[in-house]
Amino acid sequence: MAPSHLHKFGGSSLADADCYRRVAHILLTHGHSDDLVVVSAAGKTTNFLYKLLELTDSNQLWQEELQVLISYQQNLIEQLLSSDTARDLRERLSTDKAQLISLLGLEVRNTYEVNQLVSFGERWSARLLAALLREQGVAASHVDATSLLVADEGAVPQIRKEESRSRIQACLVNHANERLVITGFICANEVGDTLLLGRNGSDFSATLIAALAGIERCTIWTDVEGVFNADPNKINDATLLSSLSLEEADRLARLGSPVLHSRTLQPLFDADVSLAVRSSYASHTDFTLIAPQSSSASAPVVTNLPQVVLISLKLSGSADELLNELSNQGVTPLANWKQGQDALSLAYTHELAEQAMSLLTGLSDSFAVQQVKVSEDYGLVALVSSGANLYRRSFARLLSRGTLPVYQDRLSLVTLVPRKAVNLLTQKVHRRCAGPRKRIGVVLLGTGNIGQAWVDLFRRSVKQLNSELEASVELLGLLSSRKALISDEGIDVDNWQQAFEQNAQPWGYPALFEQLGALKCDELVALDISASAGLTLHYPEFFARGIHMVSANKLAGSGPLAFYRDLKRQLGFRRLFWRYNASCGAGLPVQHALNDLHNSGDRVEAIGGIFSGTLCWLFEQYDGSKPFGELVLEAKGLGITEPDPRDDLSGRDMQRKLLILAREIGLELELEDIELDSLVPDNLAQVSLDEFLGRIDELDQPLAEALDEAKAEGKVIRYVAQLDQQDGKLKARVALELVATDHPYANLTPGDNVFVIRSAFYQNNPLIIRGPGAGREVTAAAVQSDLAHICRDLLQEQ
């Protein structure tokens, strides 16, 4: 039966005596009696051996440096082993030293002798770790991988898999229930000469031996906890991935992962072996598992290469056929870009660029390759995920002038940017696509009819909104005039009324602001769907605490000018948003239109209209067939008016809306600057509601006279708000007007609002916006639109 686990330890995991002890502890606590172990050279031993070669080749003294290296190994032996075992290893080390001196003393060394020399580090590590395990009562032997792995020579040794598999299986039979510590980095040709497996060869040794031995799990123990969704040395909030598919891991490795290497992963494609990447310094922590059957990563991964080689060329042949030929020859580009029918750009690492150029030269006749240009001015930024397509739009929006368009394949998005911009773009892509989702909390201030309609709309639209924003917008608070429910866990929008009834508590502003401040969200947006003047007065406190505001409440936008100016000034102190489209025209895009006119360079000269659905209904119905007062009572019975109809008939609501629009186009007006001609006589303005309703017939005569006058002139009467700037003079008025029957104010659908805007661009044919200007659903929709706008603004890169 094959062992179930292979552990691989790199040089950093074996750097000193404490590291060796830590590795032994891991093997005793995380393994089994028949586990295999593959080791690299301890610390920087291999680099040291190459340095000795460089010294000899340049005719410099190397003896002192050799002694430093031997002393390092002797110290490890002395610190880790008892005297008897240590004596044996010291003697073997002395023999090795003599062999090194002999090899270094040669005037000319062949490749096999060089390979033998630089692989002493792996042999020392395997020998020492096996001895340490034996001293701790564990059956263990060290094995030289040249006795296991047989390869044909080449630029990179090509493993003879079946022959190597047979040797490994035979070794396992001879060492049953024994831990085998195997040298990484090396293999042998058919006559036993040492061959090197190249860069990251020890990791490749580990996965290769695991695959050939039929082992279920290979763990690479290193100095990091696993694979992160970005380089944690460059991105502070990079997070550890718990899982990764083999295909994603391979694509990530090719695009510059600091942890994974593509060659290490190749043996796993032909075997049912899972690969774990763990920290030998924190073996108890979470880690990354790369499973052959895993379909997707837990999150997208962002990576980069500080510099790549961009090869641009013209060709007459097929670009797809050329790309296939490059792949068949083992020089697949990191990414490619086709420009038109005859231009192609290819991105390569420096290691492959020279090989690619040589191959392109050989293929130049077949594909009529010409005008080849090479640039090293670019770096690469990429996102890897089996769901890469989900992030394409967000990724592309971050690309500015000077970057290459997004290259997309099944597993990745890739772009090239000027080298100096690599780190900044990497951070932006991580923050936008792979970082923690921004959490935007929403607090609803007002749970009446419009508030209920908004929650219902939010419930139906939040999933799509979160998907579009790639953020998490959550309802965290509900407030009525008397009680509040604030929950950092979020409020279930399907059962919010029950939760509110059961859990809401009486509230006051100091405690409310304390609770809001404790919410764990990146941004907080309050929705004022009340008509509370007291709440409006606390807007400065909301803004001071960084809370954004959506207002259906008209009182802040139409409040005293000094108060309004102060609110606007606070918005300039930080990245803070206040939108109040719902305060005028409900869901009609009136303020959007005014802002668009301003942004286009236009100048608004006049705004007029009927801004009250109630007054529109009354005057569309009023034809003299019944008294006006009777019509008001009918409208009240239908729920069209406010509970006190004077709130509509006074015109004060339209006056406030006109003030909001005037300020929106830059006019600094007070409410009193707008003349108001109320439909409610002075003698009825202050009486009780019951008395007013009892005397409502006193409205009839003035309205009947106005109607008769209008009919005599072939006109109709409408209650109109009007602001006009002419010749440097401003006139603003809300009053009853006589208008022609073909005027935009006439022939409205009862209950509609209409806004007529005259500007420098819209002179003889004014801009008209018409539609429902009241109602719980359209007002709730306007609030939701403002909320979505603020969320998008918050998620824009600064």
From TrEMBL:
Enzyme Commission number(s): 2.7.2.4, 1.1.1.3
Residue intervals passing through the bilayer: none
Record's keyword terms, sorted: Amino-acid biosynthesis, ATP-binding, Kinase, Metal-binding, Methionine biosynthesis, Multifunctional enzyme, NAD, NADP, Nucleotide-binding, Oxidoreductase, Sodium, Threonine biosynthesis, Transferase
Subunit structure: Homotetramer.
Cofactor: a metal cation
InterPro entries reported in the protein's UniProt record: AceGlu_kinase-like_sf (IPR036393), AK-HD (IPR049638), Asp/Glu/Uridylate_kinase (IPR001048), Asp/hSer_DH_NAD-bd (IPR005106), Asp_kinase (IPR001341), AsparK_Bifunc_asparK/hSer_DH (IPR042199), Aspartate_kinase_CS (IPR018042), Bifunc_Aspkin/hSer_DH (IPR011147)
Name of this protein: Bifunctional aspartokinase/homoserine dehydrogenase
Record organism: Shewanella submarina
Lineage: Bacteria, Pseudomonadati, Pseudomonadota, Gammaproteobacteria, Alteromonadales
Pathway: Amino-acid biosynthesis; L-threonine biosynthesis; L-threonine from L-aspartate: step 3/5; Amino-acid biosynthesis; L-methionine biosynthesis via de novo pathway; L-homoserine from L-aspartate: step 1/3; Amino-acid biosynthesis; L-lysine biosynthesis via DAP pathway; (S)-tetrahydrodipicolinate from L-aspartate: step 1/4; Amino-acid biosynthesis; L-threonine biosynthesis; L-threonine from L-aspartate: step 1/5
